Amino acid sequence: MSTPPMCKAENTSKARQMFTQPKTGRTIEWQEELFGILPLACFKSKDSGIIHGPDGFPYFELYLPEDGYAGDVYCIEGILDYVLHNGYGISIHQTEGSAEWVLTYGDILNYKLNGRFYSLPETDPAPDYIVSNEHQQMMIAQPSETFLPTYMRPILKSFLQYIGIAEPKMLGILLSTDKSQQPQLAFNIFPEDYNSKEELDYKMYQLSWFFPKHYVIVGFSKNDKIAEALVVI
Length: 233
Description:
Blueprint: H1 9-18, H2 28-37, E1 50-52, E2 58-63, H3 76-86, E3 89-93, E4 101-103, H4 105-114, E5 128-129, E6 138-141, H5 153-162, E7 169-176, E8 181-187, H6 197-208, E9 216-219, E10 231-232
């Protein structure tokens, strides 16, 4: 195996050993240890490299190489910009079949921005709905480059168009609380445009795939005054 400078064979061996742990026994501590070695572990890939997972999203498929493997190898650190600029997640396998671990686009983005795949949220990151006149301390601003990089905005636009939003729009919201100012994101995904709450919730759930797990995505009625602040992506 020809190992690029970034990749570390010892990380590969450690990952192989860690994946012998049954999935039901993979604790938070186990995850933290795994995340510490994954970025520089050596992997191989298939010819196409890209699959669509059960969730419908595209993933760059990586496999742990077998002993004696002499082909090309990759590491997550080395393909980071490629997957982020093309809208992919990463799935990690030992053999054909179900993945040992899956990283969403948002997980990879968080690693790029913050040096870790998961960050703890300051508030519940589940999609929620707000009415602007309920919040007296609200500031509207466009997300910064360090919060929502330019390269991911066309990817977001393409996805929103795919789910039926002809002209995708967004805005950033900063809600002040007693403890902190919590940045949030909103898009022109309105409850009036869907037949049921379940359908709307599913679209919001799909959208969350693109964001780090601690990001908060909120929604509101198209009749809410805050909708006037939405800008085209």
